[in-house]
């Protein structure tokens, strides 16, 4: 895990080490166990370390290998690093540490940019070649680890978080009109490379960017699942195949030199992870769940099911209940931890959960990604059997927060542009492969929505407390397998049918057959009292008025009826507006 940053100059000037040090300071929560800044001519690296593998100083970063002429910084974990290390040693490489960072250095030297195809893990990295002056940036297949970039004519800066780039200075903080449209329409998902700010972009997932000393660069996309059925199976074989792949993914994510726990929501996904670990003989497994007070007639916890699973598998279970006295202050902390505005109310749940979990363990496994990969969401069944040519429109009707015509009544004219979200979805659905409408929707959600909503949420909130979250449902081998599974098997039984069949006999039936749940934070879904006051203050602050994002009559209407205005999927329209302003104000934009 960890966080890193850097600057690469193209104008012959030395890198601004002071700016890199400022950027690095903002990453402390991602790496509380150590820090380092390294510079050589046009390049400077900063790194904050979370010790998970090779706890000695030999694993510290930035990591230089003078013999190979390479220096690297890295965030994440290469789960198969031991196997790759053995292979590289057989090829004649000598290692000075037992870290996965050094495997990236040697692997890059041996295989070049294609090294990423051999990595099974979550990662973002930067490697600098001393002799050529080339800088190489890479990101894992599913974008589990973030990498933000700010470019100019004279330099390139990069960091694990967007606020780190802001701390470096010199960033164009005007709003990106396309990203704003996505935020308001595409369920707050802003696909890479855009962010809400014009001056900051994201390296897309599954991408290696090679930057030459003069600033020219080339992007290489090394993974793109097809969502087609190349090797048809008997339908009865799919649950076993999925289970075998998930079992391997859970097992490999136990690699660490520190204990590994599990975030246990009480849903099928996290419960099955616990079950597979118990099946494998894990002793003393620590599990964690969170709950809040009820509001608006909605329960604030799922303890019934998490308690059931913890008792069934004999885990050391931590039940964390959050009172209102902690929730309101935590909202500010969660917004501050967001690299981009993230409207999902469970951000604050993950934030508070991570705060408590980090007191017990440094690494957890989590069930994120199962719904996108294995068809668990409510908007998938309406796409079944839809003609391929109409798929984009049906998807948008199910998933978009509002149609473009409504946005014209909500955004101020200065911020209103074309229907960018519909254009993006149509373009994505038109790509080759994914012959069925449902396959195309699952492909979009797995490669885009998942990356810039649930995955980003988990990374930002856990790393706010130096907690590493590992997501076995996003093992690329499992994702590839699931992509080739017939979609009707995924949406069966109310969603994730193939996973439910796989879980029978491992997880209690009461968990498998329960109604789908989520991380409930009722007071955000039903704004009132001090939470409504917070929202009103954000939307009427001088900064908000000066910005003028929303039509005043629309804002007034939402404030007059806080719970009465919902997006297509039932989220609070008022919270969506307020969260954007809260984020912009929190980060001084």
Automatic annotation (TrEMBL):
Pathway assignment: Amino-acid biosynthesis; L-asparagine biosynthesis; L-asparagine from L-aspartate (L-Gln route): step 1/1
Gene3D superfamilies, per the entry: Glutamine Phosphoribosylpyrophosphate, subunit 1, domain 1, HUPs
Top-level taxon of the source organism: Bacteria
Catalysis performed (reactions): L-aspartate + L-glutamine + ATP + H2O = L-asparagine + L-glutamate + AMP + diphosphate + H(+)
Glutamine amidotransferase type-2 domain residues: 2-214
Recorded family membership: Belongs to the asparagine synthetase family.
NCBIfam families named among the record's database cross-references: asn_synth_AEB, trio_amidotrans
Name of the molecule in the record: asparagine synthase (glutamine-hydrolyzing)
